[in-house]
Amino acid sequence: MANYYVKRMGPIAEINLIYEQLGDNEKKQYEPYIKAGKIISAFNTAIATDFFCNMPYSEAFTARSVIYGGTPNFRPKYDTQQEIYYAILKDLEEAANYFKTASGGDDIFNRQDILYQGDMDGWYRFANSLRIRYAMRISDADESKAKEVLASVPLDGCITTNAKNAVIRVSDKNYAPEGLWTALYQSHRVENGYYAYAPEPMVNLLEEAGDIRLKLFFQPASDDDGIVYDTTLDIIPYPISADQAIQLVNRHTDSTDDFDIQKIYGVTNSYVFLHNYYLPVGIGMTAAETYLCLAEAAHRNLISGDAEEYYNKGIILSIQNYYDYYANSTAEEKYKMYTIPATEVTDAALTTWLASSSMKFNPAQALQQIATQKWLHLNYIQAYETWAEVRRSDLDILVEDREGGKLLNDEEMPVRLLLPATEASMNPDNYSAQSAYNKQNVRLWWDVK
If 0-12 CB within 10 Å is exposed, 13-18 middle and 19+ buried, where does residue 66 land? Predict the structure, then answer.
């Protein structure tokens, strides 16, 4: 929670306080910062409330207001998740309306804008696509609100091409922050006792469909540096069941037949992920997710439109998105396991493949298919969104995690994070009012299934 209030939102709250002290002319000059801040705030807040559900929001962020003549509130009330979602949807609409007609930022904003480099159309599309994401996030709990939001978002004003994806990149490894790359690097270390193995359900799905993402996501068994041991090997998937995994680890440890897990099971593609500094350090929203959200909305009659067309477009854009990471990889050639021609990822080639694959749209299985494609696309590089969508859709492709035959977490999968203990001492009355909800097995407001 401190990550949200201090690291993510603290700077934005400070900017808002400073902004209110400016004169009218200066406010107009710095308005792009404030509107972009509303979009980033909405993005950050959705992640936080999807972790904790109810939390301080409308009365929060006032700790430093005394410096600017305001009154701080050190014990803010908890807003409901519904109230929070309504607030961020309103902020996104306001920001979208601003960026739709904004003529452009000044040179300073354009240089400081690490997301879109001053492209107002990019911010406009980002805000609108987030509105679609969050409308669908709450659609099971509040269908009328979801419909209202969806009806007000123009498709031609959303992220519909990978060129407009809301992503942050760095120039090289010297500027790479700790995060995805660090996690991948650490997961490819024998001394840590685990690898970023290729999970069985995902490998099987991609292999059955003949999906090119199999080779973009994974490679055969590799050493600590990500070099494949034997290029003639297939990508052998690793079981995700705890019982099966423990058996393999025990055999690896006690083996008398030279059984070596690291030399058998496939891992994350090191050319695309582990050593690739073209891979974004942050992803806000992509065109593939926009279309997969629209596919579900159309199938459920929340909007008009062709669900199959949206679904197909979402898959094609996802494949082309990951291919872009591959084609522009900064990794050395020694890490490249597969050569994938650009002709294999054209719209025409992918449309032909999809029509005869196991991923072909089936109206009777549409919701499961769409949820599965979101899971494949978001993957672990958008882990927060993946967890939110798995909870919302109750995706049944994941194997129950059992150890010794018993489902972990006392037979209940966690569906939220617990509020930090510091809340009990710093905001006791408001915290106590949440006690009935502050349990790992109590579903969020939007998680009604």
Answer: exposed
| Contact assessment for residue 146 and residue 58, using Cβ atoms and an 8 Å cutoff | no
Residue with tokens 């359900």: 201
Q: What is the pLDDT of residues 296-309, one digit of tens each?
A: 999 999 999 999 99
Q: Which residues pair with 189 in a beta bridge?
A: 194
Closest CA to 155 of 186, 136, 132: 132
Could you read off the pLDDT of 210-254 as tens digits, one per residue? 999 999 999 999 988 899 999 999 999 998 887 887 788 777 777
